[in-house]
């Protein structure tokens, strides 16, 4: 198709010469060029050549209700025609911003009844930090500023969110804000000493949090940031009881608990929010984004408790205000998309579907552990990861230069499946509307691709 080829060439050249992509190896960018995605529908995306791929990464853990939802397009168009934008500072509001906030308060656990909007997950976490600092300041606890998070936790790319992020690779050439942020170790059960029980491992990690608070001084520690399941750090599911026990430590020292649900909220684990329904905790703050609009438009939210709201909303003797905000806080079009997205999720029973088909996905992916290089299959429901190793007993890694994650992803792509490579791992976070047949396709394609990648390792002398 010459017309399609012309468009592809035109886009490809402009992209190569001018579009600076996120998370990209620019050293290989010029020669390899980009795949141009042109269409999407349901669980699949299509490239400029018309080739379809099952999207095994849900855009980027976000297109929860799948592609091609006319209802969202209509809700968005209707809102743009009615009023596309108006600032929400002071005593101005719009219906979608107010209605979505009320809906989030209804869905969020406990007394998390207050919503501050931004444009994504990083900003939701930065907002949480400012909110926490202001909260303690108003209580006269002005030294409570320090933040604790975990190695391999991912919280975003703005300066503060990246400082809280504990993925070491992301910190190369980046000066972490060490005055304020401290990392404790990652609760990854797969990498624990063989003789250690899960319970002992959990207690050790929880103790580490307590020790860090005591080392910094409880009067100086403001908050602990944790994802219910660590996503970009390799889908780490902490040992049972970890969340409850870390929350108890936080309560003991008046440290606020921020649950970063940017990935886990809105159905990925079969619940609107995973903190309480999957892990039994009611944190002080939940941050979310991605699935809030199923990625149709940018939107993030910092949802916080009555206790915090009561403090920040009291008249202050010194006239201090929580002077925080963005032009696009509560953008009505994004909020309209979010409302429609949640309405669709509820009407179609997406969470129930995930409980059912997500469990089947999990179970079928575990079959791949029989393959010689798959050391670990972990995650829950539609948030999964395969970890490849050179030796299953010692868990030694395959040489990084072999790029096993990329090899597997490339083999999958050739077979019509997109999965995410992450060093020696591959991440699966598909749309939440996968059918059982789709799951079978994903698992069988992965099996063939891993076998082919294993062969290619041998050919290349690894
Ligand atoms: N928090 C978590 C757990 C994430 O996975 C991400 C992004 O992947 C973020 C925060 C940052 O969100 P955003 O990229 O929308 O700023």
From TrEMBL:
What SUPFAM superfamilies does UniProt report for this protein, alphabetically? PLP-dependent transferases
What cofactors are annotated for this protein?
pyridoxal 5'-phosphate
The protein in question is named: Aminotransferase
Source domain of life:
Bacteria
The record's GO molecular-function terms, alphabetically, read: pyridoxal phosphate binding; transaminase activity
Record's keyword terms, sorted: Aminotransferase, Pyridoxal phosphate, Transferase
Keyword Transferase among record annotations: yes
Give the family per the record: Belongs to the class-III pyridoxal-phosphate-dependent aminotransferase family.
Record InterPro entries? Aminotrans_3, Aminotrans_3_PPA_site, PyrdxlP-dep_Trfase, PyrdxlP-dep_Trfase_major, PyrdxlP-dep_Trfase_small
Keyword Transferase on entry: yes
Spell out the NCBIfam families in the cross-references. PRK07036.1 (NF005447), PRK07480.1 (NF005682)
